[in-house]
Amino acid sequence: MTLGQRHAIGIVVRVVGLALLAGILLALEWAWRSHAWNDLKAVDGRCVLVGARVDDGRIRTVGCRQNGARYVKDVVRPSSQCPQGLTRVSVRHELSHDTGYVGALCVRNP
């Protein structure tokens, strides 16, 4: 095997290694977003205590008779709007490397 062939094989091995690493990182990102979205969907149809937005991803569910409770009528993606008459509460997760907004709650008073 010549020196040129070894050099070419080394380059190919590095490129394949970087591609595998990128694939693993993308899979982890997808898994995190799926987990965060499922957590968000879990409060659909329940009453929650939230402000104008949620920055840490933690949404406290409460009884609908509690003072300040709001009913989650729908959960939408970050780029979507809520139906007429519902208030949009953006939900951000603190561990995200980008904007972190995983979705939004469409809420109303119970």
Automatic annotation (TrEMBL):
<feature type="transmembrane region" description="Helical">
    <location>
        <begin position="12"/>
        <end position="32"/>
    </location>
</feature>
<protein>
    <submittedName>
        <fullName>Uncharacterized protein</fullName>
    </submittedName>
</protein>
<keyword id="KW-0472">Membrane</keyword>
<keyword id="KW-1133">Transmembrane helix</keyword>
<keyword id="KW-0812">Transmembrane</keyword>
